Automatic annotation (TrEMBL):
Its EC number is 3.1.3.48. The keyword Phosphoprotein does not apply. Transmembrane segments: none annotated. GO terms for biological process: anatomical structure morphogenesis; intracellular signal transduction; mitotic cell cycle; neuron development. It comes from Parnassius apollo (Apollo butterfly). This is protein-tyrosine-phosphatase. It is an enzyme of class 3 (hydrolase). InterPro entries: Non-rcpt_Tyr_Phosphatase, PTP_cat, Tyr_Pase_AS, Tyr_Pase_cat, Tyr_Pase_dom.
């Protein structure tokens, strides 16, 4: 595939930064239909025959950037070529590839109106980090005086369409909650069975039917492909109840917390879980801390959550404690172990008799974009390698672009962007972690 991003040039023409990719037939293209043997031929062609927008703006090529899609087993060569720490030209390598994302993100036409409403502004940890309306998680109103359905959180899917219809589709999916995707597969042949209009009782009945189908062997699920992320900010004191409402509503069983409560003397996340051995009430849920296990880089808390109808679920919270804010860990091994442990837990959850119908992983740091985005992109690419092997194609740039089209600013800086490459390199080279495809067949 090809990617192009645009910004206004001083001359008034619409200038392009070209990201031309090598396609299967060893040709280069920018999606206009023409293919060329090399970049020189491509550039010379579009200099002579420029592309013109319907508005009359001329699209001219500004600067070529190397292709971003590679074979997984070629990661060492890619990192060596891209690592610009020792290069004097900051327009090369990771720097150019990361900064081209900003130009692409500026082209998005998604809105963030809900986060700027007066009644919702106090629910944002940072005024400049708001969820896209088109992919935001929408809380179901409970009728107990709840005035807003807002929480600073977005659904993130690896298979997001990048056309104009995707905003409408994603908005509808958010309205219906992630439960509406229960029986969807990648071909999206089947229609949603669950809609927002269903009551909780009706929803449970549908889930019983689906579970019976699983028992009878009529439903085949791929745990990796079924994964959906919720990217959100660290809780504020006034959003803890909203957070737990979201966790229960979307049937989240695993939470990845990538921040400490306080960092550098600043509050980064309100504690939203009870102390070990204690029980607290949040929203209409009773949350009891069952156990807490310490590992080298992270903590694992097991929480039993019960609603007012005596339904009980076990939630596993993984808190990574050694990832610096606005930065990246000094080495990737701890993060890779963290990811592997989380995915093993999600796989075990999927085999449980009370398994969630959708594999939803809630990820948050403080703002819910930097460390959160880096984790999600890395997890997506590792999942792809698990599914397709070390000869598969991986594209860090395009994956970050896909994630950013669902929550603004994901992967905040070049250090985090480079860390994704280094962690993938370690994962592929090491091969010491289990690379298991989390798939079940009922």
């Amino acid at each position: 595939m090809h990617t192009a991003s645009a910004h206004k040039a001083p001359s008034g023409f619409l200038s392009f930064r070209l990201v031309a990719a090598l396609v299967r037939q060893d040709k280069y293209d920018v999606g206009s239909g023409e293919q060329f043997d090399d970049l020189v031929g491509l550039i010379e062609h579009f200099r002579s025959y420029p592309m013109i927008e319907t508005s009359g703006d001329v699209l001219r090529l500004l600067q070529p950037v190397s292709g971003t899609c590679i074979r997984a087993h070629d990661i060492n060569q890619k990192v060596m070529e891209m690592d610009d720490i020792l290069k004097s030209d900051s327009k090369c390598g990771f720097d150019a590839e990361f900064h081209s994302l900003k130009i692409i993100e500026d082209l998005h036409v998604f809105t963030m109106d809900e986060g700027t409403k007066t009644e919702n502004m106090a629910k944002n940890r940072y005024r400049n980090i708001l969820p896209y309306d088109q992919t935001r998680v929408i809380l179901r109103k409970t009728g107990d005086g709840q005035e807003t359905d807002y929480i600073n959180a977005n659904f993130i899917r690896s298979s997001r369409l990048c056309d104009s219809s995707s905003s409408v589709q994603s908005s509808n999916e958010s309205l219906n909650s992630v439960q509406s995707l229960i029986l969807r597969n990648d071909s999206r042949k089947s229609a949603s069975l669950v809609t927002k209009s269903l009551s909780d009782d009706a929803l449970r009945e549908v889930k019983k039917i689906i579970r019976m189908d699983k028992i009878n062997g009529n439903l085949r699920r791929n745990i990796v492909k079924d994964k959906v992320y919720i990217a959100t900010q660290g809780c504020l004191s006034n959003t803890v109840d909203d957070f737990w409402q979201m966790i229960w509503q979307e049937d989240v069983r695993v939470v990845a917390m990538i921040t400490n409560e306080t960092e550098g003397g600043k509050k980064k996340c309100e504690r939203y879980w009870p102390l070990a051995g204690h029980e607290e009430r949040y929203y209409n849920l009773f949350v009891k801390s069952i156990s807490e296990t310490c590992y080298e880089d992270y903590l694992l808390r097991e929480l039993d959550v019960t609603d007012d109808k005596k339904q009980c679920r076990t939630i596993y919270q993984y808190q990574f404690t050694t990832w610096p804010d606005h930065g990246a860990p000094p080495e990737p091994d701890g993060v890779l172990t963290f990811i592997d442990d989380i995915n093993r837990r999600m796989y075990l959850n999927s085999q449980d008799g009370n398994a969630p119908e959708q594999n939803v992983l809630c990820v948050h740091c403080s703002a819910g974009v930097g460390r959160t985005g880096t984790f999600i992109v890395l997890d997506m690419l590792i999942d792809k390698i698990k599914m397709s092997g070390f000869n598969s194609d991986i594209d860090v740039h395009n994956t970050v672009k896909t994630v950013r089209s669902q929550r603004r600013g994901m992967v905040q800086n070049k250090a985090q962007y480079r860390f994704i490459y280094l962690a993938l390199q370690s994962y592929i080279d090491n091969k010491s972690l289990k690379k298991k495809i989390y798939t079940i067949e009922a």
